[in-house]
Design a protein that fits this description.
heterodimer; A: 267 residues; mainly alpha; 8 helices; 85% helix; B: 294 residues; alpha/beta; Rossmann fold; 2 domains; six-stranded mixed sheet; 11 helices; globular
Chain lengths: 267, 294
């Protein structure tokens, strides 16, 4: 005979789980909205925003440069092997440029920035929560969303597109170096094709995506950090969760964003 | 804005209503996943009073402080502070309200990326007060807690007792009429604990601060009830008449305002009264608690 107590407990477990998830989505939505509203109402912490721009932007530059030099080179190696079959190695510049500007630049730069900064933001805010610094801030009459979240969100949204521009350029430089030494492509040939193949829609895609990715990464990281429970172990969990969730949601939204932008520019 | 343009008496957002308590809890209940922690708590804190919350770990002392500061909201019941019902206030209004109270957290909760001076001046900088005025006020309040020498140090470089003192300085920087002390002596050695209690006596007796203090050390309660800080001599002196009132009277005369004890047990107020009454109580639980808490 089945245990009558088992069914309600399983149901209540599932119910509690669902409630927690819905509550988390509600909290995330409110936090994101508040972070945006704070930009347009005083006080705005511009000094904190500049500090975060320095930390996220300048701090991420070395990994962006190193990664995209390599990515550009690999792209040339992979595409050139196909183009060589048709004797069209000159098209390498086009392929690298389009791939980087439309997709790989925004997506991979965002993933790298998420890995470096989402973890940093979540662990910093999480540590502040478990040591009651966030409560102390509230007790001193300062809104933690305004002081901690909005500067990070604004900084990330402003800085990620700039990092993507650097990433695209460095990727092309990496591609050109490899193309020059392996395919004997000249600088004029490579750069002319790389630049001319780009259309207005490609540039819009390359700029709009990082704006949205920056918002997703920073808000998820802040939300995970501010929801930490369970002491230092909780901070560790939040840090991992922030990187995984922000990367995953960034890639999922990229799919819909790519479709929408391609539709907008009739690609 | 300048500090001088904001005298202490005008910094408070509300005026105290004569005959009304400063803080009032009515049937407050709050619970978490594990169940209710507070189950219908009611009590008042009067102007000038020092209310010591005693209870075992997990009895809800910190929760009461956070409820009174509007950092948490009760599931049921009402909390009034300085004539305002906290439940009826928006978060924006609560932020404004909290600028007029001081809160000393259990571990200090100092911002670890800021220096002592930056921690103490945090609230003043938010109000965009002149740098020179901030500097003067920070030095004054750090001198009060005898921590001026650490002005440029970071919290990580301070001992536990020093962090508590800086935390008290941060809470006092805007001359609040009310200060919450959450287990200010927890984890400290007896000598340092006594230093902290002396500091709380100074705040009470020199600045007239009303306070709520959560602790599991009965020595803290008796230290506050039996002694007062004499500003003229700079010494801690015993008081004999204290602890027999639930509210201060106009004819109170010399000495410190009353110190009352509130003992929490199983989420409810188990005992409320003067510190000396706890000592002489024949209640078995209170007797056991006093012995185990010493």
């Amino acid at each position: 005979m089945p245990d009558n107590n088992e069914r309600p407990s399983l149901l209540s477990f599932a119910g509690d789980f669902l409630k927690r998830q819905v509550f988390a989505v509600q909290e995330y939505s409110l936090l994101s909205l508040q972070a945006l509203v704070n930009v347009f109402t005083p006080p705005v912490y511009w000094t904190d925003t500049l500090e975060q721009m320095d930390s996220i932007g300048v701090g991420s530059l070395p990994i962006i440069i190193a990664a995209f030099l390599s990515i550009g080179g690999v792209l040339v190696l992979q595409t050139a092997s196909q183009f060589q079959r048709f004797g069209e190695t000159a098209l390498t510049g086009d392929a690298v440029s389009l791939a980087l500007v439309r997709e790989l630049g925004p997506a991979i730069a965002a993933l790298l920035v998420a890995g470096r900064n989402a973890s940093g933001i979540a662990s910093e805010l999480g540590s502040m929560v478990v040591t009651e610094q966030v409560d102390a801030m509230r007790a001193l009459g300062t809104d933690p969303t305004r002081k901690l979240v909005t500067p990070r969100v604004v900084a990330m949204v402003l800085v990620l597109p700039l990092l993507v521009v650097v990433a695209d350029f460095v990727g092309l430089v990496g591609g050109f170096i490899v193309a020059h030494f392996t395919l004997r492509l000249g600088a004029v040939q490579f750069w002319t094709r790389a630049v001319n193949t780009l259309e207005f829609g490609d540039l819009v895609q390359g700029t709009v995506k990082p704006l949205i990715f920056g918002f997703i990464i920073s808000t998820i990281a802040c939300h995970k950090g501010l929801r930490v429970t369970g002491g230092t172990q909780g901070v560790g969990r939040a840090t991992t969760s922030a990187v995984v969730a922000s990367s995953l949601w960034m890639l999922i939204i990229d799919l819909f964003l790519a479709k929408f932008l391609l539709y907008m520019f009739q690609k | 804005m300048t500090l001088s343009s904001r005298p202490a008496s005008q910094m408070h957002m509300t005026t105290l209503v004569p005959g009304e308590p400063l803080i009032s809890f009515k049937n407050v209940r709050i619970g978490f996943d594990q169940g209710d922690v507070l189950r219908g708590v009611s009590f008042d804190v009067w102007p000038g009073e020092t209310k010591v919350l005693l209870g075992e770990s997990g009895s809800g002392k910190t929760l009461l402080m956070k409820l009174a500061a509007g950092l948490l909201h009760p599931d049921e019941g009402r909390v009034w502070v300085m004539g305002q019902e906290l439940e009826a206030m928006s978060e924006h209004d609560l932020l404004d309200f909290r600028r007029h109270i001081g809160f000393v957290f259990q571990e200090g909760a100092l911002f670890d990326s800021l220096t002592v001076a930056e921690n103490v001046s945090f609230r003043l900088r938010e109000e965009e007060i002149d740098d020179a005025q901030i500097e003067a006020r920070v030095r004054e309040v750090l001198r009060f807690v005898e921590m001026e020498q650490a002005i440029n140090m970071y919290p990580g470089e301070l001992s536990g007792g020093m962090r508590r003192r800086v935390s008290i300085a941060r809470a006092l920087v805007d001359r609040p009429p009310f200060v919450f002390y959450d287990s200010p002596t927890a984890g400290l050695d007896p000598v340092t604990s006594q230093t902290i209690i002396t500091l709380i006596l100074r705040c009470r007796d020199l600045q007239g601060v009303t306070s709520m203090l959560a602790t599991h050390r009965v020595q803290d309660a008796f230290g506050l009830a039996r002694f007062r800080f004499d500003g003229a001599t700079g010494r801690v002196l015993p008081v004999s008449h204290n602890g027999h009132q639930t509210a201060p009277r106009e004819d109170q005369g010399e000495g410190s305002p009353p110190t009352n004890v509130l003992v929490l047990r199983d989420g409810k107020v188990y005992f409320e009264g003067a510190a000396e009454e706890v000592l002489h109580s024949s209640d078995e639980y209170l007797k056991t608690f006093l012995v185990s808490a010493e």
